[in-house]
Amino acid sequence: MVALREIHIFITLTARGCFPIGRSLRQRLGQGNAVLGLEFSGREDGTGKRVCGFAAARAMATSILAYPEFCFDVPDNWTLEEAATVPIVYLTCYYALIIRGKLQKGESVLIHSGTGGIGIAAITIALSMDCEIFTTVGNDEKRKYLNKKFPKLKMKILDVHAIYLLNL
Predict the structure, then answer these.
(1) For the chain, what is the mean pLDDT?
(2) Between the CA of residue 60 and those of 36, 38, 40, 64, 86, what are the distances in Å?
(3) What is the structure's pLDDT at 167?
(4) Does position 135 have pLDDT exceeding 70, yes or no?
(5) pLDDT: is 124 or 66 the higher one?
(6) Residue 157 CB partners (closer than 8 Å, separation 6+)
(7) CB–CB of 19/39 below 8 Å?
């Protein structure tokens, strides 16, 4: 018999994520506008290693037993609060772009709503693959934010309202 401790790591939690959900999923789950307890960050007991990850509906506690394969090291330049916002959006984008979309190095990709969590994660993944990225924003403030955060995107940030007007 395998002891629970052998297949899990014990983590004292520092922060938890709040994942927004759409209307259809909200109706099926019978919940409000967000799912709590999916994402977390904290320190691995015994080693003190900073980790983030996801644990379905278990991350609302002060500590959890987590599967190591669902935990990721937190970079030194991130706070644990920042790290708690990363797992679900980056895994969603990785699944969409790499697994389902089979995105290859150097390809072009259009990412809508570039300043949202999913948009920023998708841009980051696509930049890591040297892709040509086009993204949409809703206003000039968001365009400036993306230009500052991702200087390579200059002149490839499209105004979603201007695109709509072209279709009239």
Answers:
(1) 80
(2) 7, 8, 8, 9, 16
(3) 52
(4) yes
(5) 124
(6) 114, 134, 135, 136, 137, 143, 146, 147
(7) yes
SS3 28: helix
Q: Copy the structure tokens of residue 104.
A: 């290859």
**Residues 29-43, buried b or exposed e (16+ Cβ, 10 A)?**
eeeeeebebbbbbbb
Parallel, antiparallel, or unpaired: how do β-strands 63-66 and 132-137 relate?
unpaired
Coil/strand/helix, residue 71: strand
Name residues whose C-beta falls within 8 Å of residue 38's C-beta, 6 or more positions apart in sequence: 17, 19, 54, 55, 56, 57, 59, 87, 88
Does residue 30 come out as left (phi exceeding 0), alpha (psi in the -120 to 50 range) or beta? left
Is this prediction's pTM over 0.85? no
Nearest 10 degrees: Cα torsion 142, 162, 117, 97: -140
What is the spatial distance between Cα 64 and Cα 37, in angstroms, rounded to a whole number? 11
User: Could you give the CA distance from residue 110 to residue 95 in angstroms, rounded to a whole number?
Assistant: 16
Q: Listing from the earlier edge strand, what are the strands of the sheet with 132-137? A: 108-111, 132-137, 157-159
